[in-house]
Amino acid sequence: MSSRRILFLAPAQSVTRIFPQLKEAGYEVGIAENLKGASAFIRKSGPSVIFSRPQLPGYKVEDLLSVSADDSSFPPVIIFTDKGSAEEAERFLGMGARDYWLEPLQFEKVKAAVPAVPRTPASAPASSTLGGRTPLPEGDGSRIIGSHPAVARVLALAKQVAPSRATVLISGESGTGKEMFARYLHRSSDRADKAFVAVNCAALPEHLLESELFGHEKGSFTGAIARKLGKFELASGGTLLLDEISEMDLGLQAKLLRVLQEGEIDRVGGTETIKVDVRVLATTNRSLEDWVKEGKFRQDLYFRLNVIPLRLPALRERGDDIVRLARFFIAMYVRDYGLPPLELAPAAVQWLEEYDWPGNVRELQNLMERASLLAGKGPITVSHFLLDPDSWPVFADEGSHEQQPDQEHCDGASPESVTDPFSGGVIPLHEMERIMILKGLEQTSGNRTMAADLLGISVRTLRNKLNEYRSAGLEIP
Predict the structure, then answer these.
(1) Per residue in 208-258, pLDDT tens?
(2) CATH no. for residue 306?
């Protein structure tokens, strides 16, 4: 089973050039030229992303975007066309398209748009196709969950400033949900029916980021084979998020400052000044005040961005929200993967409350996905969180499945005597490790890359462990 799946809703010849590269890189690629073929691939394979032409015989991309708008678990949709316009891009982005590209498709760009590990429902209902919609139950992962006073203050301020055009600077550690708050600001504004466009300033070098933001004219540099609309144009009338703004080069910062002050852009290689109406939000995981002092960030741009500052608290500062969020994510993955209802064991709750959470909400979400998949019929225990026995807690709840093994009582245990590692019996930690690795491989249908990611280890570590088990004469798939 491929860990990365792409559906092209387009004539086959439009993807002929990059199809061999995608297949060689390990992508599962589907090409459909009508709704029936697209529905079959979506239901069977659960694509990570859908690339669609604006229209085909008997099909308009509006049909796809309407389904996507009703179901936030639906794959992101990127529209590509050989004859684009700013008006069409604005309309489609306002309807929920992830992006709008001009042809020809570039392999590296397509590759960068595909999530590394897609989420595929274990048993998608028959109606989960383009022809019939399945409403998503409450709790779709886009809500802001939490009642801690620090979160309540940020939400209250965000709600108050959302209707304005003021620039907002959202700061916080990585994984605290800065983009989610940016989307909340957009949804709560009078621009909610317009485009929301996000740009990761840390992902591209300066010359590419400038083109990405402001667009370029054909022939303006090597590889500029056609005019490209920049994100400012695509977001005109809506909201533009500049993610990790601190990583932007100083030279580009000066050009951004002009755009914010004058409300106009110049495409790379262009001679025409273009007016844009964009509400700008920015995020950073650094202290911009310190970067200004160190000469890494322009002071005038900092003042221009920091009109409304929002600081998001780290997860470790949010008290009871940690367990509340954990249960929210567990319920989400139970639904998405078609799992039986799952609960947290008491010791697992204690572990969640005492852990420092350096990766914040993102780390918690990933951990709950792993634990939900490994728990079987539950309950979720600490052993489902981590594979490294040295990092397991020393506390235990009486009657839970997480009592620390006493080596004197473990020596007699054998793999053959253990049929269910979570049945309450005490087994050696190395055997627990082996069982969890096998369970991870089972959950991912033997895909080692996905299993390693699920288990929180490298593919090399997983391969070494499997070789070790084979050398010991154990049966390994």
Answers:
(1) 888 888 888 887 777 677 778 888 988 888 999 999 999 899 989 999 999
(2) 3.40.50.300
Tell me: do 90 and 204 sit in the same domain. Answer: no
pLDDT tens, position by position, 412-462: 333 333 334 444 444 455 666 777 788 778 777 677 777 777 777 777 788
Asked whether residue 330 is domain-assigned, the answer is yes
Residue type for 153, please?
Answer: R
The boundaries of the domain holding residue 445 are 319-471
Q: Which SS3 state, helix, strand or coil, does residue 197 take?
A: strand
8 A C-beta contact, residue 375 and residue 384: yes
Torsion of CA 335, 337, 343, 347, to 10 degrees: -140
Are 234 and 101 part of one and the same domain?
no
Domain end, chosen from 313, 341, 365, is at 313
324 and 301 within one domain? no
pTM to 2 decimal places: 0.57
| CA–CA gap between residue 135 and residue 143 (Å, rounded) | 16
432's tokens: 């627990």
Amino acid symbol at 410:
C
Distance CA 50, CA 77 (A): 5
| Angstrom distance (rounded) from CA 443 to CA 122 | 10
What total of structural domains would you count in the chain? Answer: 3
β-pair type (99-102, 77-81):
parallel
Query: Which residue ranges in the chain fall short of pLDDT 70?
Result: 1-3, 69-73, 115-143, 223, 386-432, 445, 474-477
**306 and 198, same structural domain?**
yes
| Same-domain pairing of 332 and 302 | no
Distance CA 371, CA 343 (A): 11
Query: Could you tell me if 230 and 265 are in contact, meaning their C-beta atoms sit under 8 angstroms apart?
Result: yes
Domain boundary (67, 85, 113) is at 113
* 412: its two tokens: 């007699």
Asked if 240 and 281 count as a contact pair (C-beta separation under 8 A), the reply is: yes
Angle at 164 between CA 158 and CA 168, to 5 degrees: 50
Do 228 and 96 fall into the same domain? no
How many Cα atoms are found within 13 Å in the side-chain-facing hemisphere of 324? 11
